[in-house]
Amino acid sequence: MNGRKLLVAAVVVAVGQVAFLAAMIQGRAALLRDGREVVLRTQPVDPRDLLRGDYVALSYDISRVASTLVQSPRPRDDQPLGAVAVRLQQGEALQPAQIVAVFAGQAPGPAAEGQIDLAGESDTRWSANVEEIMISYGLERFYLPEGEGRAVERGMRERTFKMVVAVGEGGQAQIKRFYDGETPIYQEPLY
Fold it and tell me: CB–CB of 164/131 below 8 Å?
């Protein structure tokens, strides 16, 4: 009897783990398939990680934001902004999006036509003297096949690279396509 209960418990745990992994994969695929696209201009940082392989560490034009774009209510002095919603005006075709406003926490209402809210995180401590804030979006690393990181890094110092990201309803984002100028160099598969 005990062996049978143990077998049933093991099967239930295994099915639960498979269901959890399938839900994670499906959620990512749904974001890539159904998320609204926005184009972001990239900036290079450094393409090497000895343990995980080649990657391009990215910054975006929207990673450094003028503090004047932070809408009220603003955080108290010396408090980090924390979670932010960055409202972007989408560009035409492959033109990068431009920041319209930054909201501490959630955006106060839905974005207008042609605008999209992107969720980010800022450790910048607020004060009246802060001129710009740094925001990360969870899109700052892009892994490449071994040996390709340095070539992409050199290219990014000479040419404009862009990232097309899919943005879900809650502002979460996933890299969808990577462009060298107008030429796509990577397309994220759904599965």
Answer: no
- Pick the range with the lowest mean pLDDT from 25-29, 41-45, 69-73, 140-144: 41-45
Instruction: Look at residue 83 and tell me whether its pLDDT is greater than 90.
Output: yes
SS3 for 164-183 is: EEEECCCCCEEEEEEEECCE
In sequence order, what E strands does the chain have?
36-44, 48-49, 53-60, 64-66, 80-89, 98-104, 115-125, 132-134, 141-143, 161-167, 173-180, 183-187
**pTM metric for this prediction:** 0.76
**CA dihedral (68, 70, 71, 75) positive or negative:** negative
Write out the two tokens for 24: 């994670």
Burial class (CB in 10 A: 0-12, 13-18, 19+), 118: buried
Q: Where are the domains of the chain?
A: 35-187
